[in-house]
Design a protein that fits this description.
mainly alpha, 144 residues
Length: 144
């Protein structure tokens, strides 16, 4: 169970815990993203610009929560490097989220619903990229 390579590590209790924590942090990010998106739209900002701003603010919030809680045992290197990696990797999620939002609204979904669908799709992409590239250190389960 304490193996750190191959499929065994992916299914380990440690990875399940980090996935749940990542999901909780993501839930906070959803509230921030959705609230800011709707506030910016109500203020008259263009839909896609509002989406990009809302996503980036939620990315920054999620980074700090994940770094301090979710992946605190996997931190390696300087925080600025982790932040840079995370933000670059999350741009993939931003593209996915924004594309789903745009496509959804083109097909008649409300911006709020299409954004939530985009967040869900981007969540999976973001988790996998975070574990693979942003937080690459590892502390054995016994040390947690």
């Amino acid at each position: 169970m304490t193996s750190t390579s191959g499929n065994t590590a992916f299914y380990s209790l440690h990875n399940l815990r980090s996935f749940v924590k990542f999901a909780i942090v993501g839930g906070v990010g959803v509230v921030i993203n959705e609230g800011l998106l709707l506030a910016l739209i109500a203020a008259g900002f263009y839909l896609l610009l509002s989406s990009v701003i809302a996503i980036e603010v939620s990315i920054l919030t999620n980074f700090f929560m994940n770094d301090l809680w979710t992946f605190k045992d996997r931190r390696s290197g300087h925080i600025a490097v982790r932040l840079g990696k995370f933000n670059l990797l999350m741009l993939v999620g931003l593209v996915v989220n924004t594309a789903v939002l745009d496509l959804g609204t083109d097909y008649g979904m409300s911006a709020a619903v299409a954004n939530l669908v985009g967040i869900g799709v981007a969540f999976i992409v973001r988790y996998l990229l975070s574990v693979k590239y942003a937080w690459t250190g590892y502390a054995p389960l016994e040390q947690l």
